[in-house]
Specification:
By secondary structure, this protein is mainly α. The chain contains twelve helices and two strands, in the order E-E-H-H-H-H-H-H-H-H-H-H-H-H. The protein has two domains: 41 residues, no CATH class; 246 residues, MetI-like fold, CATH 1.10.3720. Strand 1 and strand 2 form a beta hairpin. The chain is flat and about 75 Å long.
Length: 322
């Protein structure tokens, strides 16, 4: 790595993208106390709004909640009933497939959008503005819009396929179990890719212009510039995007409910839909709370795996370039 002379004449390494050397910034005791005081109000609000309901949900998951009488403690009975339920196991598998497709499509599509919009072309500003529109749309509205877009009678998607001769009759995608799952994944990922693209674009804007120019002068191809310059630079943002998309993927409800309500059959019954049915349709608050706890733990675990993997990759990258 190239080095620059400091004011005292010593050579200092150019900082690498994506990580900060330890020991370069040491906060005093007063600064740490001041930072802690600033964090206390936000921490209190988070504990009040998130910690309280979460703790109550955990407590309910060990009880047989009744709206008319006492709520006896049943221990792990709710969880045992879930594990022995074919409906729960089916919903769990569907949720894993849905979340995997959602994360893959929304992250990849967002990165592609960001790379394209980072280039200079006529109408670039207008195109960047358009990227905000899906993100600004509420999830429920996205589901309703895509339901009409994919409709088997009047949907524009079917109309386009018919006009180009790709189909000979309108296809009821939402009436097909596999088709319904794919369409709902694409609909939700389309909305989330907008946020991913905005985050990636913000990271790409911070890349010093001389880095890709120097790589080009050295004979690096487009793929090599992306792999060796762009990707390491946006790696911290990639971690944020992946964790955010994992959370939205596992906790998705609005789009599914607006488009299929879990059908046809149980082909799109995610754990969030199953949770809704147990609590609001069958009044099984204990079972629904247990599903919520399982869903939260799965989302947290998968997000933690992504963070750990990217953190290790970043550390390996940092040691390699040093």
């Amino acid at each position: 790595m190239p080095s620059h002379a400091s004011l005292d004449g010593a050579a200092s390494e150019t900082p690498k993208p994506g990580f900060v050397r330890s020991g370069h910034s040491k906060l005093g005791a007063a600064d740490r106390r001041f930072g802690l005081l600033l964090a206390i109000p936000a921490t209190f609000i988070v504990l009040l709004l998130v910690g309280g309901p979460s703790l109550q949900t955990i407590v309910y998951s060990f009880q047989k909640v009744s709206f008319k009488g006492p709520t006896p403690f049943v221990g792990l009975d709710n969880y045992v009933r879930l594990l022995n339920s074919d409906e729960f196991r089916h919903s769990f598998r569907i949720t894993m497939v849905y979340a995997g497709g959602f994360v893959l499509i929304s992250t990849t599509l967002g990165l592609v959008f960001a790379l394209l919009l980072n280039e200079r072309f006529w109408g670039n500003g207008f195109a960047r503005t358009l990227l905000i529109i899906p993100w600004a749309a509420p999830w429920l509205m996205v589901g309703i819009m895509w339901k009409w877009f994919i409709d088997a009678d009047v949907g524009m998607f079917n109309g386009l396929l018919f006009q180009f001769g790709l189909i000979h009759d309108y296809v009821p995608f939402l009436a097909n179990p596999s088709g319904a799952l794919i369409v709902t994944i694409v609909a939700a990922a389309w909305r989330q890719s907008s946020l991913s693209g905005l985050l990636f674009l913000a990271a790409l804007q911070t890349i010093p212009p001389d880095l890709p120019e120097a790589a080009t002068v050295d004979g690096a191809s487009t793929w090599q510039r992306f792999r060796l310059v762009t990707l390491p630079w946006v790696r911290p943002v990639l971690m944020v995007v992946l964790v955010t998309n994992v959370i939205f993927g596992f906790l998705q409800f609005d789009v599914i409910y607006a488009m299929t309500q879990g059908g046809p059959g149980n082909s799109t019954t995610l754990l969030s839909i199953l949770l809704y049915r147990q609590i609001f349709q069958f009044s099984n608050v204990g079972i629904g709370s247990a599903i919520a706890v399982v869903l939260g733990l799965v989302a947290f675990t998968v997000g933690l795996v992504f963070v750990n993997f990217l953190y290790r990759s970043e550390s390996v990258y940092g040691r390699a370039v040093e």
